Amino acid sequence: MPAEEMQETKETAAQQAPSEEPVVAESPAEETQDLSKELEAARAQAEEYLNLAQHVQADFDNFRRRNESVRADAYADGQRNVAGAMLSVLDNLERALDSAPEDSPLRSGVELTLKAMRDTYGKLKVTEINRLGEKFDPNLENAVMRGTAEEGEPGTVCQVLQKGYSMNGVVIRHAMVKVVADD
Description:
Elements: H1 3-16, H2 28-85, H3 87-99, H4 105-123, E1 126-129, E2 141-147, E3 157-162, E4 164-167, E5 170-173, E6 175-180
Parallel strand pairs: 2-6
Antiparallel strand pairs: 1-4, 3-6, 4-5
């Protein structure tokens, strides 16, 4: 092929080929700037994920603490309910002890059972509400009778008809009392 034809073929091929822009290599400064932007974006995203993880952890810790508190409250409520239900047994043991003759095997058996019951209540921190002679407190006692002025000072408890009990500072049964009237 003659040189002129080759030249024409090259020109025709150059005209038919799509024109591509020449690739300009970025300068090192521009490349560093792009990498810095990508790095900053990645750091911002990592910081966002860290904050999210910390919030989720804090929420979970709060949830766990609330659950523990609710569980402890429910357990304490259950203990108070059982202790309150068993107070009638304690009352009956005290009545049986009062009516049992001295030196009888029945009396010694009731005494041992009553002691075991009181020891168990002691471990549960159940205490008797004993306010005989003190000012009437409706938070601790139920007044069911009125006493006379000869029985004590006005507004004071002159007789306990049924013992009251509290557990860890919470009343599980109010005492039934007779109160001297405020005349």
